[in-house]
Design brief:
14 strands, alpha+beta, six-stranded antiparallel beta sheet, 41% helix
């Protein structure tokens, strides 16, 4: 078998020797032979296609951990995985596009569009194991929110977080260009009201003219059901999600990781660092905001079916809570479901 030194192989696959050494360290492209004295790497001609695939995936920005999963797949499965990953990237890009459009409209003095019409329902349940319900929920025309408290005063923390956003939602509308800043200030004020040695997650949707503002910190989640397809709108602020984003563990490993509930960001005094998004809803959309008591027990496929088959937001919320209890109800579970209606 003819082997190529790392320099010749790098030129053949249009990658740098530095990149090849990195891929070797990560186990993505292990040399066919390494000189035991000099440490010099040699590669086989059969490794060219794998090296080129890794190079192309890196050029489109895919994390090394995800690349490792894809190059280990059969071609058909790998193709679907690449399409799925790019769909997520495109969705995140679209979110940034909404923010850019909002800023541009604000600078241009464009008049706001018609206000949204939301029909919503909320349900919170203690579950079958916990002695106290530390979740707080709100469903109204101007606020959809779920907070999941923790610590000795977790129930007070979640209630304070939701109350802080209610005060914002029920107050005067901020100038459009100042909306996101005012919302961030409201979240900081809510964090200052959280008791010491306690904290809470907070995920909320607030109508802003024709758009929805999304506030998120922690591991409660927001989902969108649109035309029969379920999209997750938030990323968990957990250690396990960070490891998955960095490619150090797979999404499958993350789902059963012993530290999957360990938060790296939450609403704690004196201030918070939430994710803020703007989204453009459509008539017929159905939104779900929920605590992790649902998502850690009920698969997303079952969540999709419940949302898609329920006739009303209240029916959907009851069905989802029932599914979590049927799965053992190990945690408090809270759901807010809202439909975007033609007004």
């Amino acid at each position: 078998m003819t082997l190529l030194g790392i320099g010749d192989f790098a030129r053949a696959v249009r990658l740098s020797a530095k990149a090849l050494r990195l891929y070797d360290e990560k186990g993505l492209l292990v040399p066919a032979r390494v000189d035991p004295v000099t440490g010099y790497r040699y590669y086989a001609g059969s490794q060219v296609e794998r090296a080129r695939l890794i190079g192309w995936l890196r050029r489109v920005g895919m994390p090394l951990g995800r690349i490792g999963e894809i190059v280990a797949m059969e071609p058909g499965a790998a193709a679907e995985a690449v399409r799925g990953w790019w769909g997520g990237v495109a969705a995140e890009t679209a979110v940034r596009g909404e923010l850019a459009a909002f800023v541009a409209d604000s600078l241009a003095g464009a008049p706001p569009g018609p206000a949204l019409a939301l029909r919503s329902a909320a349900l919170s349940d203690r579950g079958l194991v916990r002695g106290e319900n530390q979740d707080a929920v709100h469903a109204g025309e101007r606020l959809l929110a779920v907070a999941d408290g923790f610590g000795a005063s977790g129930a007070r923390a979640s209630a304070a977080a939701v109350a802080g956003l209610r005060r914002f939602a029920e107050g005067p509308d901020p100038v459009p260009g100042a909306l996101l800043g005012a919302l961030a200030d409201a979240v900081d004020e809510a964090a200052r009201r959280v008791p010491a040695r306690a904290g809470t997650t907070l995920t909320a949707l607030l109508p802003a003219g024709p758009r929805l503002a999304l506030v998120h910190v922690g591991d409660s989640r927001a989902y969108l059901l649109r035309e029969g397809s379920l999209s997750r709108l938030t990323r968990d602020h957990t250690l396990v999600q960070a490891l998955a984003d960095e490619g150090r563990i797979t999404e499958r490993e993350a789902a059963s990781h012993p530290q999957r509930a360990r938060l790296v960001r939450a609403l704690t005094p004196p201030a918070a660092r939430p994710d803020l998004q703007l989204r453009t809803p459509r008539t017929g959309d159905r939104y779900l905001v929920c605590s992790d008591g649902l998502t850690t027990t009920v698969p997303e496929a079952a969540i999709l079916r419940a949302l898609d088959e329920s006739t009303t937001p209240a029916h959907a919320a009851r069905t989802l809570v029932t599914l979590a209890r049927a799965a053992g109800g190990p945690d408090n579970v809270s759901c807010v479901v809202a439909d975007v209606a033609a007004d």
